[in-house]
Specification:
17 strands, 14 helices, binds 4'-deoxy-4'-aminopyridoxal-5'-phosphate, 17% strand, Aspartate Aminotransferase, domain 1, alpha/beta, single chain, Aspartate Aminotransferase, domain 2, 406 residues, 2 domains, 4-stranded antiparallel beta sheet
Length: 406
């Protein structure tokens, strides 16, 4: 993999650009990843040659693009090893996937005084939809804590579960800490009490091989744009038997079987959850991104990114007064850190002047910041196209700016 990086980088046009007259070092991959030419070209090709609204068309273009978008669904199914394409719902991102479940599962299964368990390290996308559900239904949100290393206190999960618990929703990988959570264990514990589990895979599906059948999760959500695909794409996987029981999320075209003013019946899965004209060209391009990942091999990606993470962690730790936030034993390629006496956004602004794109702030995970009593962190997040040389430049740049900001 290491030898192939230069070739891989050529597939991503933006990586050859400059920012502030410096070669771009893009370390903001947890926010969104860059796109390979195959994704960009697919979008251009389909709008140039094949665009027409999908489903029920009788003309060539409509049929052609319908076929392509349903093939894209099959690519996603294979990517996460779901049983059937009926279990793959195209959404606009992880946020929409989780909102869909919080609404539709909530409307169907949650009543007053029921309980929902999330964890303390969730992204706001896996907190707020559940809070909104709790408000609607007068239900209760319970929170599984994490320790100071950034690891979930998994022993406490059984204590939180009781006959009122209706669903558990946790991140596969924390975007603020980088922790890879033991989701298989969590799913097993919840299933012992017949409680379904939603996994927020926004920071995982592009880094770690996900097999929803092996995990036995009930829902798995991830974002296309964080997986080298277009913005405005995402996936919700759900087990067919649960999805079938859930009430639709949005009403409109596509999601119906028959409409009259007296009564409307709903379409079969997955279309029941895809109201309106879907983002079909971007879904087709997303499938190209997933094929790209598959071709590189998630095992190779994971191995290379782990080496980068370990190297960067070692090098960053050599910097005085720099503290890494989140030192779990199992981590994905995210490093959050603070530097004594320096505001993260000041450091981020100076790094930007050097062509380095990192993220600063709370990373939409304010409870994580509250846990550590900090206002925010600097976060570098890596993808397989990042290099050890870029890490060296990053560390050198930090060493240069710290005395300026002190
Ligand atoms: N969950 C996690 C763990 C995330 O990192 C993110 C994105 N930062 C989301 C959910 C939301 O994803 P999106 O903005 O693509 O809907």
């Amino acid at each position: 993999m290491k030898e192939k990086i230069e070739k891989i980088r050529k597939d991503f046009p933006i990586l050859a650009t400059q920012v502030n007259k410096k070669p771009l070092v893009y370390f903001d991959n947890a926010a969104t990843t860059q796109k390979p030419s195959i994704v960009i070209d697919t979008i251009t090709e389909y709008y140039s040659k094949y665009n027409a609204n999908i489903h029920r068309g009788i003309h060539f273009l409509s049929n052609f693009v319908t076929d392509a978008s349903e093939k894209a669904r099959e690519t996603v199914r294979e990517f996460i090893n779901a049983d059937t394409v009926e279990e793959i719902i195209f959404t606009s991102g992880t946020t929409e996937s989780i909102n869909l479940v919080a609404f539709s599962f909530g409307e169907t299964f949650i009543v007053k005084d029921d309980e929902i368990i999330i964890s303390e390290m969730e992204h706001h996308s896996n907190i707020v939809p559940w809070q909104m559900l709790c408000e609607r239904k007068d239900a209760i949100l319970r929170v599984l804590p994490f320790n100071d290393a950034g690891e979930l206190e998994i022993d406490k999960l059984s204590e939180l579960i009781n006959p009122k618990t209706k669903i558990v929703a946790v991140a596969h990988v924390s975007n603020a800490l980088g922790t890879i959570n033991p989701i298989k264990k969590i799913i097993k514990i919840a299933h012992k009490s017949n409680i379904p589990v939603l996994i927020d895979g926004a920071q995982a599906a592009q880094h770690i091989k996900v097999d929803v059948k092996e995990l036995d999760c009930d829902f798995y959500a991830f974002s296309g744009h964080k997986s080298y695909g277009p913005t405005g794409t995402g996936i919700l996987y759900g087990k067919k038997d649960i999805l079938e029981k859930m009430t639709p999320y949005k009403g409109g075209g596509e999601m119906i079987a028959k409409v009259s003013f007296e009564k409307t019946t709903y379409n079969a899965l997955p279309f029941k959850f895809e109201a309106g004209t879907p983002n079909y060209i971007d879904s087709i391009a997303l499938a190209k991104a997933l094929d790209y990942i598959t071709e590189l091999g998630l095992d190779n990606i994971c191995k290379y990114e782990t080496e980068l993470l370990e190297y960067a962690t070692r090098e960053l730790k050599k910097i005085d007064n720099l503290k890494i936030i989140g030192e779990a034993e199992h981590k994905s390629s995210v490093i959050s850190f603070i530097i004594d006496g320096i505001h993260p956004s000041d450091a981020g602004t100076l790094l930007d002047q050097m062509g380095i794109a990192i993220r600063t702030g709370t990373h939409c995970a304010e409870p994580v910041m509250q846990h550590f009593g900090i206002s925010g962190t600097l976060r570098a997040s890596f993808a397989f196209y990042n290099t050890f040389e870029e890490v060296d430049y990053f560390v050198k740049s930090l060493n240069y700016i710290i005395p300026i900001l002190k």
